[in-house]
Write a structure and sequence with these properties.
3-stranded mixed β-sheet; 6-stranded mixed β-sheet; 12% strand; 50% helix; binds iron/sulfur cluster; alpha/beta
């Protein structure tokens, strides 16, 4: 089992048609280091979670975990159907602290013992804080990755744990939450659910297909846990499955490319396919590189342009839009019609629209 950040899998799930992204998710935990290996330059500017956000998240977790997780137990009691006083907690942060690359094997072993107890009908803890699970990305023996949900809460209605995430986002109401933060949190939980399914299967246990996750965000007052809510994550689970299968395909491709000679990913990057799209900007360090590499792709004009022009290169699109319609084939006429519709929506003359693309 090797170490991978859920972050890499989340990114692969957002653009599963990009082979290079999937390869990075597999092999490169440190995206800035990879950028430097690839380009020979430091990444200019900020990237990733800000230190202030990280500190805030750590403080929120510390508050929730203090005094035998008193606040977290109180928040989760209605879901776990046990009073906070009677709730049994295993806090793996306290039980087995240490550097991130050393702790997971031990925590995974302990979680597996708990699942064995569950299978045997013995009592199990109600709440597991920062447990480790293994997600089978390529195979269970050599291609599984450690995944660490913020907590697992035992749901007696299903006789199994639910995956939960603790986030310091301030929850005034649902509308006050940042959509990107929420999307990442949902995908993170979807990874946890898939890893829990893999672990459960090892012990002949099942996780229900209802795919509910528990979220605990912060009240606006002093970084305390707000009332938890449950969400069904069917779409996110599907997206993560697509990301994982693109990582699996990338692993096979990389093995074939390396053959007998091992080499770092940066040396193979130019031969891996990319799939530039609007969301690359702001979500991938290589956005500028891919945009300029794909200089004639409609993706440079945004995802709507791809919907209108497909993956035709912009030079031929510009030629066909300016051509005499009588000379065009049916599929080219369809593209022309879509361009006319787009110009109308934008409120601009068709000729100006064509000049803009050229
Ligand atoms: S920027 Fe490039 S490497 Fe990154 S996701 Fe987009 S296409 Fe893939």
């Amino acid at each position: 089992v090797s170490l991978v950040s859920s972050r890499g899998i989340i990114r692969a799930s957002k653009n599963p048609d990009c082979e290079l992204l999937a390869a990075m998710a597999l092999e490169e935990g440190n995206e800035k280091r990879f950028f430097k290996q690839l380009t020979g330059e430091e990444y200019p500017g900020e990237y990733g979670e800000r230190n202030s956000a990280r500190r805030r998240g750590a403080q929120f977790e510390a508050n929730a975990h203090a005094n035998d997780a008193a606040r977290l137990k109180a928040a989760l009691s209605p879901f776990i159907h046990v009073s906070p006083e009677d709730m049994v907690v295993r806090n793996f942060v306290d039980e087995f602290p240490g550097p991130i690359n050393r702790i997971h094997a031990v925590r995974l072993h302990r979680v597996r013992r708990i699942l064995r107890d569950l299978r045997a009908g013995r009592p199990v803890p109600h709440l597991l804080i920062q447990p480790t699970l293994a997600l089978n990305v390529i195979d269970a023996e050599f291609g599984a990755f450690y995944i660490s949900p913020d907590f697992l809460g035992f749901d007696p209605a299903i006789g199994m744990y639910r995956v939960g995430e603790l986030k310091s986002f301030i929850q005034r109401d649902r509308a006050s939450l940042d959509p990107e933060d929420l999307d990442n949190t949902r995908r993170q939980s979807a990874i946890g659910i898939l890893a829990l399914m893999d672990e459960a299967a090892r012990h002949s246990l099942t996780v229900p297909e209802d795919s509910l996750a528990l979220f605990v965000f912060s009240t606006p007052f002093g970084l305390k846990p707000a009332d938890p809510h449950q969400e069904r994550l069917l779409a996110e689970i599907e997206q993560i499955r697509r990301g994982v299968s693109s990582m699996r395909a990338a692993a096979a491709r990389l093995a074939g490319m390396r053959g007998e000679t091992d080499t770092v990913l940066a040396n193979l990057a130019d031969d891996l396919g990319t799939h530039y799209r609007e969301s690359c900007v702001g979500s991938c360090l290589l956005a500028k590189r891919c945009e300029s590499k794909d200089a004639t792709s409609p993706a440079r004009l945004g995802d709507n342009a791809v919907r209108v022009f497909g993956r035709e290169d912009l030079d031929s699109v510009a030629r066909l839009l300016a051509a005499d319609p009588a000379e065009l084939l049916e599929f080219q006429l369809e593209i022309r019609q879509k361009a006319q519709d787009a110009a109308a929506v934008l409120g601009m003359p068709y000729d100006d629209f064509v000049r803009m693309i050229a």
